[in-house]
Amino acid sequence: MAEIIPLPTTPAPAAPRASREPEPLWRDALGEQLRRLRHDRGERLADTAERAGLSPQYLSEMERGLKEPSSEMIAAVAGALEVTLIELTAAVVDELRAHAPERTAVGVRAAYSLAA
Questions:
Q1: How many Å apart are CA 110 and CA 1, to the nearest integer?
Q2: Ranges of the chain with pLDDT below 70
Q3: What residue ranges define each of the domains in the chain, with the CATH number in brackets?
Q4: pTM for the complete prediction?
Q5: Angle 40-45-49 from CA coordinates, rounded to 5°
Q6: Measured in whole angstroms, how far is the alpha carbon of residue 46 from the centre of its chain?
Q7: Where are the stretches annotated Disordered (predicted)?
Q8: Cβ neighbours of residue 63 under 8 Å, at least 6 residues apart?
Q9: Alpha-carbon torsion 30, 86, 105, 68, what sign?
Q10: Measuring CA to CA, which residue among 110, 106, 95, 109 is closest to residue 32?
C-alpha cells in the first residue's frame, strides 16, 4: 500500500491592514503652533509678519504648512510672538507626539535614550 503524504497547505492571504492616518509633517505642526500663538495674542497676520520682518503672505504660508521655513525665519516669527525657539519647538514636538501612534512614540524615545 502506498504511503499518503499530506500536501503542504498554503497560508490564507493576510488580511488588509487598517490604513493609518499619516503622521503630520513638522511644517504642518509648526504652522498650527504659530497660528495658535498668534491667535492667543489676538494679533492680525500683518502685525506679526511686520514685527518678524517678513510678508504676511509668507507667514500665512508658514501657518498653513506650505513653506519649509529656514531656522532664521522660524526664529524671527518666534521672536515676534515673544516665545523662545525652545518653547516653540517643545510645543511642536508635543503636537507631533499627540498625533503619533504609540508604537512610533515609544520607538523614538527608546532611540533617543540609547543615543544619550
A1: 61
A2: 1-3, 5-21, 101-116
A3: 26-115 (1.10.260.40)
A4: 0.69
A5: 110
A6: 25
A7: 1-23
A8: 31, 32, 34, 35, 38, 45
A9: positive
A10: 95
The predicted structure's pLDDT at residue 1? 60
* Cβ–Cβ under 8 Å, residues 62 and 52: no
Q: What is residue 9's predicted lDDT score, i.e. its pLDDT?
A: 62
Structure-block grid coordinates of residue 92: 511642536
Length of the chain: 116
Amino acid letter for position 36: R
Whole-number pLDDT of residue 108: 53
Which residues of the chain form beta strands (DSSP E)?
none
What is residue 30's predicted lDDT score, i.e. its pLDDT? 97
Cell (9 digits) for 59:
507667514
What was the pLDDT predicted at 23?
A: 77
